[in-house]
Amino acid sequence: MAQHTRLVEVLTYLHDRFSTLATVERPQSELLRGFRAGMTFARICVLDEITTESLRPDAFVGAAVLSGGLRRDFDVVQGLVDRLEREGRWAADADDSEFRVGYHAALGIARHHLDVARRTLDIGEAPAGVHRPVRSQSRRAAAVAAGR
Questions:
Q1: How far apart are the first and last CA of the chain?
Q2: What are the residue ranges spanned by the domains of the chain?
Q3: Distance in angstroms (rounded) separating the CA atoms of residues 92 and 105
């Protein structure tokens, strides 16, 4: 249960950080609007993982270590990194505005916090085990991948 608790604590930390960083009241510039949008996207990604973790059958019985442990933790954090990188590639092609610059700055800060999360969980490299493919992506990334 300790491993699962650590992952939940790290996800909660990430959500709190992204929520705090996104609180720009009525941003006046396109740069700040882009930053707020990027942080909001990062926060939604973390909320997806928190929801997934809370729905796991072992979330309440303490079997998290037995059902994947560090490998699962790595996959969760790596899934968040992958999702932010895909979103960053999509946003890079969108336009060349201040909004995009702010958006990319937010995604960069989010990736930094994910590196901190990885160090906190002590999973710098992928542990042995089966890799869980990333199961979710933004609607925009899915549309781009589908060629729409």
A1: 43
A2: 2-145
A3: 12
Q: 77: closest CA among 138, 144, 30, 9?
A: 9
Phi, psi torsion values for 12, nearest 5 degrees:
-65, -40
Which one-letter amino acid corresponds to residue 146?
A
- Tokens standing for 137? 């992506």
Q: Rounded distance, CA 95 to CA 93, Å?
A: 6
- pTM comes to 0.69
Q: Which two tokens stand for residue 127?
A: 């542990």
Instruction: Choose from 84-93, 120-129, 135-144 the range with maximum mean pLDDT.
Output: 84-93
User: Cα–Cα distance between 17 and 21 in angstroms, integer?
Assistant: 6
